[in-house]
Amino acid sequence: MADVPDIETVETEDDYIHVQFRDPEQFDEIRTPDWAQNPAESVSEGAEVRTGNTEGDDDWKVQSVLIKKSVGEEKAREQAKVIVEKIQS
To answer: Rounded to the nearest 5°, which phi and psi values hold at 21?
Structure first.
């Protein structure tokens, strides 16, 4: 089973709950890759995954998962962990 990083912060903004696993400041670039849409939406409809990368490193890491606000914060935490586990496996 993949080692899922700990959740750093959870913030509700606009239409999404942002479940942050890594500080965005540690990355040089952050993207919302198309390939992550299927595993994300298989867990939570409308979810998005943001990945980050540092210069000179080919390994992209999950920075945060965005879950629709209607899900609620506690369920968003659970779903975000499942999504990261699916992506990292």
So the answer is: -100, -30
Is 64 inside any structural domain?
yes
Question: How many separate domains does the chain show?
Answer: 1
Pair 83, 40: CB distance under 8 Å: yes
Host domain of residue 69: 9-88
What CA–CA distance (Å, rounded) separates 88 from 78? 16
pLDDT at residue 47 is higher than 50: yes
- Measured distance CA(69)–CA(81) in Å, rounded: 16
Measured CA to CA, the distance from residue 36 to residue 40 in angstroms comes to 6
In a domain, 74, yes or no: yes
State pTM to two decimals: 0.92
Looking at the domain assignment, is residue 2 inside a domain? no
Kindly state the helix (H) or strand (E) to which residue 77 belongs, with its residue range. helix 73-88
